[in-house]
Write the structure tokens for this entry.
Amino acid sequence: MHNAITIQPVASARDRKAFVDLAYRLNADDPCWVPPLKMDVHALITPGKNPWFEHGSAQLFLARRGDNVVGRISAHIDQIALSMPAEQGFGPGTGFWGLFEAADADVAAALINAAAAHLKAAGMHRMLGPVSLAMWDEPGLLIDGFDEAPSALMGHNRRIYREWLEPIAGHMAQDLINYRLQIDQNFPEIVNRIVALGERSGRVRIRHVDKSNFAAEANLIIAILNDAWSDNWGFTPWTQGEIDYASKKLKDIVYEDLIRIAEVDGEPVAFMMTIPDLNEVLIQCNGSLWPFNWAKLLLWLRRPRPRLMRVPLMGVAKKLQGSRMASQLAFMLIEYIRRDAVTKYGATHGDFGWVLASNEPMKSVGEAVGGVVNKTYRIYERAV
């Protein structure tokens, strides 16, 4: 039939190109969609380039009507996620879907069902998604906050996807939220008093990262992160390959005064990573650095003057969590970076997220500094 939908595994270089290119076609009319660099998307889905494939496997699918590609999805299994405690959201029998795009509701249903069938055949009994490909990449379907472009390393999708997916993707497993705050004005007085108290303490030191030794600093940061987040829903620890890959990938957008490490009595126990909003320039590149976008990007990276900064990662050692010291370190890190983000880079706003909607301590921090939730992402769960 002319309108019949066929779902086929990605099996060739031509298929992989069609898989990547589809997103640019379906989202072309959305002024808030930031086209990622195509070379980065190809690297994400390619074993040997993305170290996630050292512990994960993914089957990519294309949906077609006749010769027209009208949808895509991944069905993937992460061996580390399978080994995690079930009460933290993953665990034995849990597979994932992600990298979803669809032209209409029928295509969406066919893709979800194909992913479910693939995971069931692989021995899974439940699936979560969208997760593309790891929780550290772009997890969740945007369900609220469509009127402005996402900041760097955050996802964006068509508003209609929620309507198409909710009848077939299952129930809500977890919501992820992003806080937007104004940073070119002082934080509330209570926060300033907590920061001042920490500054008078002889025990606390807030230092820059050393970019000349960034590989070692990245290992230190991820060691704190793996400890700090280890009890969180959806946590999987970073592997050494992923640390090395991320440190190399992020080095060009790392600025020493925007990433801070907190030490207590000489021991590193907390960190905060902030990056300028690279999307402010990527939104103009249409997925490619050629022929002249590379020069535009290079110039921007040399002296970024973004409106927005984003905090993608932050953590306090588990042994301090729930203590007054943990809150003090968090506010000190935020305030120290806020000062430099405003005075040295001219930023006026910041994004703090994503944050698990169930993580009350981190939500309290976001709200205490004047943050307002401006985007919500949802991860769905269903049996297969």
About this structure: The chain has twelve helices and 15 strands. Residues 11 and 223 are 38 Å apart (CA to CA). The domain at 180-378 is CATH 3.40.630.30 (Aminopeptidase). The longest helix spans residues 324-343.
